[in-house]
Amino acid sequence: MTNFGGVLPALVTAFNRNGEIDAKAMERLVKFNLEKGVTGFYVGGSTAESFMLSPEERKYALEIVMDAVEGKADIIANIGFFSTQQGIDLAKHAEKLGVSAISSVPPFYFKFNMEEYYAYYSDILEEVQLPMLIYNVPAMSGVNFTEQDFDRFFQHERIMGVKYTSYDLFLMQKLIQNHPTKTVFIGHDEIY
């Protein structure tokens, strides 16, 4: 499993005046960041407005980034979706492109129980061989994972860690201390 480190910015999705994804602008943005020394990119997250994009647009944006990176940086693709099957479809596409890892926000809007969230992540990981980063963003998803929830998630050998976008710094510190082999990315820029 890749040992992630350094700075992996959450990449925006560039659009042209017609509201279409602007491939050239995205390529320039990737190249600019690579020249500044980033070690990778988080593609298709909240910063990318992914939940306002169609699955085809999300795939296209990831393809643009993968081509622009030319294997010089790690790519973590957010494949989170409301339905497991669509998440699996995005995960398979990301795996085919050769991303370093996938990530997923828990399905939201409907109130699922923790067993259903665990099944969601497990079902996706049964379909691909990539490591998974849980995307913890309770302010947007409405899902508040507890320390015990993370303890259970982290028992899965391919759940590599968490993109931690929460202001509960006490829980974040406990995760870092209790799971030293897991990766904890700070999701809020202002906390960095």
Computed structural class: alpha/beta
Strands in their spatial order, largest beta sheet: 1-2-3-4-5-6
- Measured between the Cα atoms of the first and last residue, the distance is 24 Å
> Ranges with pLDDT <50 over ≥5 residues?
none
Counting DSSP H or I runs of 4 or more residues, the number of helices is 7
Largest sheet features: 6 strands, parallel
Estimated radius of gyration:
16 Å
Strand content: 5-15%
Give the helix proportion (percent range).
Answer: 40-55%
Order of helices and strands: HEHEHEHEHHEHE
Q: Look at the structure and give the mean pLDDT.
A: 92
Instruction: Give me the count of strands.
Output: 6
**Inertia-based shape:** globular
